[in-house]
Specification:
The complex is a heterodimer of chains A (about 400) and B (about 375). Chain A has about 400 residues and is mainly α. Chain A is built from 15 helices and five strands. In chain A, helix 3 links the parallel strand 1 and strand 2. Classes of the chains: A mainly alpha (about 400), B alpha/beta (about 375). Strand 5 of chain A pairs parallel with strand 4 of chain B.
Chain lengths: ~400, ~375
């Protein structure tokens, strides 16, 4: 067991770097989960667009009514009437729509003159149509009420419009999926999981392999009385323990952060299987790097480029649904693509039924296939080096 | 004298391949990744595809002509199509479609109109909004007709007319493209990575840290001269790297920086000054091993870039609103904001505020590290 013990002595040397990766990932996860609004109710929650409403028409009842209606149906983020601040807000998508009710709007509307609410939007966005729809609805209802509703004061008119628009379509949610849905925090957690597990395991496994592959050390070990097979097996055992350790820390933390919602989704075991498959992939890549690079600098470079590169091209950092087809076609040749694909499929499941699970198992097997191929390449390289 | 020291310093630095990788190649790789990842987000219009829904053809549905017409109008293929409708015979079949994910929601018509969905989301919300619109219209029309039934014909004609009550305006000609901030933050990161050169300079200058430092401390050249020439060399190489990155971003990836190239150059120069000074500052004040110094430099520049939005696009704005002080003292945020102001604002007020603050921060770091170096005296070399 000397090799196995030496494994963890070497590991202690690079523990700091590995801990940094894990700490950054966990820190970000906590930040994300805190930023996320708690979704306690199992009912239907209407999507609310974030908007800014600038009312330059003051106390006019119609302008107030419209602003109030928008506040009821969207999330109004308070902003002062300052173009620079509003531009910031739109650029960073704090609001997706800025509605400006111009001065004299209510009076113009009452006398039937042409008038419009000014809007500043992200061109062509879906959410802006959603808000357009609401403003048009409010004002066209007001127009009908004014034209045909007989004599009434502005306040009565606004009240009548409000009553008309208070109707709500009842929405029922399928019971089996009440806790599910792509918006759950743990879905993001398990997507970013790929980056964390890849970076930490690559770093750890490659550090060990580099240490054991140092020419002098390797030669000394080769003439040691321990059989080569036993040494390799002990190293493999070390890699397994280390990889499983990283994996379980990350999985355990997901329980700490999302325990109840994660357990009630009934999909934990699928997430675990998928991450386990990717853990094997990460170990294989670390194994390959450890056998190919010589300096610590080159190792850090390789780990960063591979972890970031795969995460960007395969949909870890940016969802696959947003990536272009060309990038996805390229991503297919990388294991992380299949991890994210399986992860997305798991999060979209209503219930784990056999027909829906088959493609997910397929994606996991492909990952294991990648891992096998990478291990084989690394072993081949090691063999050639030994022959030198 | 200047040319001699300067050119040898330049050669010395440029041969450090590892630092060249982190300060030049790594940003180029990241830029390429950003480009591919945000390809779909940049400068392209979001597209809307109709929401798939099923409706149960109950007796109530068949008899409700107004509702069927309303649904028909919005599910007709073409520009204004909001939903893609599947009509099913019974509720079981519709619910099966929902469970399989073939539709986002099931519309049921009984005494009133209802909706069944599998989860909350934008598609489901659009479905609900469409159904709400119908019931709102229904409420308005019945309300008016209850008071004056005679105008039914006129009212129905009026209902057919749709008017838009919104008019699009814009504050400036620049489109608000969130993906740009990633690239701006990346340049900021590259500028701050110039700190590696500043750090290297201080190591090669202090007699207790490197043999080169010992040799150079014994040389008769004035310390201030050496510091300034080294600084110039580090700045030159760091600026050259940022220029390569900028050229790659502008010419190959076609990232927009507005139309004022000179101001872009000025920002890069000031950014590099900030980076090199940061490195020099850490190199003189942190009394630890070289590895620890490099770690601290990477940690600081990464944290600064993170707060400027390198990883999360909304981070910079969030900091600016929640903890504004941070965005005035964070060099990465200042660099990013300088590029952003150039792109989006017509006036240069905010741009020059950023540049001024950057220069202030850099010069204080430089002065502090020179004060420290100046007092170095060695009992024995």
């Amino acid at each position: 067991m000397q090799v196995f013990r030496a494994y963890f002595k070497v590991m202690r040397a690079s523990a700091g770097t590995i801990a940094i990766y894990v700490a950054i990932f966990l820190g970000l996860s906590v930040a994300f989960s805190l930023a996320e609004a708690p979704q306690e109710s199992a009912g239907f929650a209407q999507t609310r667009t974030s908007i800014a409403v600038i009312n330059r028409d003051g106390d006019a009842p119609l302008a107030q009514g419209l602003a109030g209606y928008l506040a009821d149906t969207s999330t109004v983020v308070p902003y002062p009437d300052d173009p620079e601040k509003l531009q910031d807000a739109l650029f960073f998508r704090n609001v997706e729509y800025i509605a400006i009710i111009p001065a004299g709007f209510s009076a113009d509307f009452a006398s039937g003159r042409d008038c419009a609410v000014q809007k500043v939007i992200v061109p062509g966005s879906i959410s802006s149509r959603y808000v357009d729809m609401r403003i048009d609805k409010y004002l066209s209802t007001a127009r009908l009420r004014r034209q045909y509703g007989g004599d009434q004061s502005e306040e009565q008119l606004v009240a009548a419009v409000g009553a008309d628009l208070a109707q709500e379509t009842p929405v029922a949610v399928l019971p089996s999926s009440a806790t599910n849905g792509a918006a759950q925090g743990f879905v993001f957690y398990y997507r970013y999981f790929a980056y964390a597990v890849l970076a930490t395991i690559m770093m750890g496994v490659s550090s060990i392999m580099m240490a054991f592959n140092k020419p002098d050390l390797l030669r000394r070990n080769l003439c040691a009385p321990i059989p080569a097979r036993s040494r390799s097996l002990q190293l493999a055992a070390g890699h397994t323990v280390f990889a499983l350790g990283c994996w379980s820390v990350l999985v355990l933390f997901s329980f700490v952060l999302y325990g109840r919602s994660l357990l009630s989704s009934g999909l934990v075991w699928l997430y675990c299987l998928n991450t386990l498959a990717f853990t094997v992939v990460s170990a294989s890549i670390g194994f390959l790097i450890g056998g190919s690079v010589k300096s610590v600098g080159a190792q850090a470079g390789a780990v960063n480029v591979i972890a970031n590169g795969m995460s960007f091209m395969c949909g870890v950092f940016v969802p696959q649904s947003i990536l272009s087809k060309q990038v996805l076609d390229f991503g297919r040749f990388l294991p992380a693509y299949w991890y994210v694909r399986a992860n997305d499929a798991i999060s979209a499941l209503y219930r784990p039924i056999a027909s829906a699970l088959r493609p997910i198992y397929g994606d996991m097997l492909i990952q294991l296939g990648f891992a096998a191929a990478i291990f084989a390449t690394a072993l081949l390289l090691a063999k050639e080096r030994q022959a030198e | 004298m200047f040319m001699h020291l300067f050119s040898y310093r330049l050669k010395c630095l440029a041969r450090d391949r590892e630092v060249v990788f982190w300060t030049l190649i790594f940003p180029l790789i990241l830029a390429t990744m950003f480009y591919f990842a945000f390809d779909q987000l940049m400068g392209r219009q979001e597209t809307f595809s109709p929401v798939r829904a099923a409706v149960v053809a109950s007796d109530a549905y068949r008899q409700n002509i107004a509702f069927r017409q309303a649904l028909g109008a919005i599910s007709e293929p073409g520009e204004g199509q909001l939903i893609e409708l599947t009509v099913t015979d019974d509720e079981r079949e519709a619910l099966r479609l929902l469970e399989d994910g073939a539709v986002a929601g099931v519309i049921t018509v009984g005494d009133s109109v209802g909706l069944t969905v599998g989860q909350s989301g934008i598609e489901q919300s659009i479905l609900k909004a469409v159904l709400d619109e119908y019931s709102h219209r229904y409420a308005t029309v019945t309300g008016i007709l209850r008071e004056s039934p005679a105008i039914a014909g006129e009212l129905i004609r009026e209902l057919g007319q749709r008017r838009s009550y919104t008019k699009q305006i814009s504050f400036s000609s620049a489109e608000p493209d969130t993906a740009l901030n990633f690239f701006y933050a990346l340049i900021a990161m590259t500028c701050l990575y110039g700190g590696f050169w500043g750090l290297r300079n201080t190591t090669d200058m202090q007699a207790d840290l490197s043999p080169q430092g010992a040799r150079r401390s014994a040389a008769p050249t004035h310390k201030l001269g050496v510091v300034l020439y080294d600084l110039a060399a580090a700045l030159t190489i760091s600026l050259a790297e940022v220029m390569v990155l900028l050229a790659y971003l502008m010419l190959v990836l076609r990232v927009s920086f507005g139309n004022e190239s000179w101001y872009v150059l000025l920002t890069s120069l000031v950014g590099c000054i900030a980076g090199v000074s940061l490195g020099a500052f850490i190199g003189t004040y942190v009394r630890k091993s070289e590895g620890a110094k490099t770690g601290i430099l990477i940690g600081t520049s990464m944290t600064m870039s993170f707060l400027a939005g390198l990883m999360i696009d909304t981070m910079k704005d969030m900091i600016a609103r929640k903890a504004p002080v941070l965005s005035y003292i964070n060099p990465a945020a200042l660099i990013t904001d300088a590029f952003y102001s150039l792109y989006i604002f017509e006036s240069h007020r905010r741009f020059f505020l950023n540049i001024g603050l950057l220069l202030l921060i850099s010069s204080s770091m430089c002065i502090l590290s020179f004060l420290r170096l100046r007092r170095d005296r060695y009992a024995s070399l």
